[in-house]
Amino acid sequence: MSYTKIAAIYADSETLSGQTVTVGGWVRTIRDMKQFGFLELNDGSCFKNLQVVMDAGVLSNYAEIAAQNVGAALVVTGAVVLTPGAKQPLELKAASIEVEGTSTPDYPLQKKRHSPEFLRTIQHLRPRTNLFSAAFRVRSAAAFAIHQFFQDRGFVYVHTPIITASDCEGAGEMFRVTTLDPKNPPLTEDGQVDFSQDFFGKPANLTVSGQLNAENFAMAFGDVYTFGPTFRAENSNTQRHAAEFWMIEPEMAFCDLKGDMDVAEAMIKYVLRYVMNKCPDELSFFNSFVDKGLLERLEHVASSDFGRVSYTEAVEILSKNNDQFDYQVFWGCDLQTEHERYLTEQVYQKPVFVTDYPKEIKAFYMRLNDDNKTVAATDCLVPGIGEIIGGSQREERLEVLERRIQELGMKPEDYWWYCDLRRYGSCRHAGFGLGFERLVMYLTGISNIRDVLPHPRTVGNAEF
Amino acid sequence: MSYTKIAAIYADSETLSGQTVTVGGWVRTIRDMKQFGFLELNDGSCFKNLQVVMDAGVLSNYAEIAAQNVGAALVVTGAVVLTPGAKQPLELKAASIEVEGTSTPDYPLQKKRHSPEFLRTIQHLRPRTNLFSAAFRVRSAAAFAIHQFFQDRGFVYVHTPIITASDCEGAGEMFRVTTLDPKNPPLTEDGQVDFSQDFFGKPANLTVSGQLNAENFAMAFGDVYTFGPTFRAENSNTQRHAAEFWMIEPEMAFCDLKGDMDVAEAMIKYVLRYVMNKCPDELSFFNSFVDKGLLERLEHVASSDFGRVSYTEAVEILSKNNDQFDYQVFWGCDLQTEHERYLTEQVYQKPVFVTDYPKEIKAFYMRLNDDNKTVAATDCLVPGIGEIIGGSQREERLEVLERRIQELGMKPEDYWWYCDLRRYGSCRHAGFGLGFERLVMYLTGISNIRDVLPHPRTVGNAEF
């Protein structure tokens, strides 16, 4: 901890010029010219490497160091020298170098291009590459920006539960959480699995959303947000789906759909600006090597007013272009990614909120509009991705909510506490869900969700 | 969102004095004196209520408002009036009040003392009480303080996976995560459960710690931290254990045990100071109604240098007082809570790090000391709680680690990637785990973990 971080050397180069510092890091490249040599050291504190100059006349162990393999861990003490004319703004003239941990000639991360598929097989090492170093640093910055945005606005961060005993959203396939014997589970007298003997005394699952729980807290704290892992046991093998992913779900009392969109728009812009300020080297790398238009798009989105259009209007616009789609658009249909992208990329050329969807294609808790046909829902669509946020004003009227629960064949007793919120001091409220990985993909241009998750979990994959 | 938060009124009372604002919140108390009345409104933006003055001469719906029950949601528009001599520093003179949502005379949270046990049966409503309003606001502030502490120091936040396919710590009972039919699981030819047909193609569990994964990232980023849920399927029903809880696990490269303790001590002090500054009303409430010595203890801890003592020395001290313990202390024994509390409360009277425990009672990944008997582990003990942090320097020597894995009868092939970290650029590194709920209990004086978790999960309990 008494070592100087490379990030600090770049940040404070004027002050540190001529000073002696000690740096611990890993060799990215090494060049031995017999009497002297260069190595690029990376310590993970920033995207950039530090160039270290080794002089055989100075280093008694020059030969040992020059023989190190890529990936070796070194501790280097030396003087910071500014090099204004050179490729890099500064370098470290080594006075001493110690080998902390060697590497081997068959170190899997040699200086060459590796495919993302190969790198997924060495997830424990891939953070040491430029791509993943940048991706996970952006991920960390974006996560903090989310917290900062909400905390600055007085939102209370709530850790909604991961294990739940009810499939509250009816959101489809869930993972079961159990301590029962997998082969010989206890049975009841009528031959069913006796879940009363399971850990929680009933069947339990991994949560698909913290929203209903978050509403409990919004009705006390006004503005709250969750930020935690959520799970889907969908047997789908796409670039955009993982079984385990992180979600942000704000929930706001005394807030309608318009207020909901205002917060969502402000949040996205805040995170974009934060990451653009905090991670310029990373974004510049992505812009050069992953997605040429990235910086321009982020700048554009951060400074645009997002569009807002009703589902009904959107369907009118889209159905005029039905010849361009695999799936025809008609009122009542669920919008496909091709429709969403057409709307945000071709029609609006910026992010757009689509509002007031048919109730049949949306969840039970969304507020029924006066037309009795649509609900106060919104999806935020962004160029290059499609849907990034789904939100709604919630149904705050007890009788309307109960009717909806029954219409959908759900069991009202499962929702006694959710309905209680409408019994005691109910109020307008709204919220949304942001899939965090989608946001990181948007910020980096990375197109596969497996490459923005530290250790992705998908069908058939839970390694590391 | 265009409403003014009560927190903002208190914070900006000079500016807002005489101004008209609109507030949305819930009735905590209501007093009707026929021609005028008072109500206390809480909107969750801060601990304090707002006193609203109702005048029957001003409000055309005075009777309707005066008849509202505790818990009702109201929207109040009125002028902010400073009341320097009065019990509260300001009040709102209502010009209009609208009922947003009524409550009922049998609203469960009447103005009287409710037992924590009762309140656990109405977890959806308990955030509306003073106790839980304060507890969860402190929890949110402490969570943010943790992020701020690490981000300010350049640590990268890593979302280590929740679902894992290996019991890497060997840390005991885990929850199984599955999509197999619970009653008739597929079987292999030899009659065993065929986990190749399970979602991940093998048995999977909920994580007990993100540490081993965090090490992957520390070896790339230098300093990283996790902050996420962890799980224990222990059938224990105590005040200090939950099946689902949140943990913070920093991991630092080029860091030894001393550096590890330095970070842990700085982090605890930072969080204490942050919460003391951010939540004075909440802490003052806890100090008055939950734990009389709280404020004094927090101030003392935030300004003390933590003690540091080796396990061997601690055993010497403790064994002289064996007559005071249920369990006798001897070299080699695991310290019980009674011993830990004696050490921190009686001997040191402040937090203390105990270091260098016998290897037999600690985990396989902890670094073996030169004495071959102890490992570079540390527990941080705090008055009133006992252990709050457990950490260690990790074994960075491949051959020592592999020997330890075999000694303990673990399977080396399960740890191929963990051992790889020692093969390619290994370096000294260290980290620790902080149970977040323990920290919140410490900050609030609340003695039952069920009362610092939004919706606690324990044996037999996964309601809400």
UniProtKB/TrEMBL annotation, chains A, B:
Primary localization class, coarse: cytoplasm
Domain Aminoacyl-transfer RNA synthetases class-II family profile: 131-454
Reactions mediated catalytically: tRNA(Asn) + L-asparagine + ATP = L-asparaginyl-tRNA(Asn) + AMP + diphosphate + H(+)
One of the GO biological process terms: asparaginyl-tRNA aminoacylation
CDD domains the record matches: AsxRS_core (cd00776), EcAsnRS_like_N (cd04318)
Superkingdom, taxonomy of origin: Bacteria
UniProt entry tagged with the keyword Endoplasmic reticulum: no
Matching PROSITE patterns: AA_TRNA_LIGASE_II
Location relative to the cell: Cytoplasm
Pfam (any one): tRNA_anti-codon
GO CC entries: cytoplasm
InterPro entries assigned to the protein according to its UniProt record, in alphabetical order: Aa-tRNA-synt_II, aa-tRNA-synth_II, aa-tRNA-synth_II/BPL/LPL, Asn-tRNA-ligase, Asp/Asn-tRNA-synth_IIb, NA-bd_OB-fold, NA-bd_OB_tRNA
Gene Ontology molecular-function annotations: asparagine-tRNA ligase activity; ATP binding; catalytic activity, acting on a protein; nucleic acid binding; transferase activity
Enzyme class: ligase
Quaternary structure and partners: Homodimer.
Annotated family: Belongs to the class-II aminoacyl-tRNA synthetase family.
HAMAP family for the chain: Asn_tRNA_synth
Protein name: Asparagine--tRNA ligase
Organism (species): Pusillibacter faecalis
Gene label: asnS
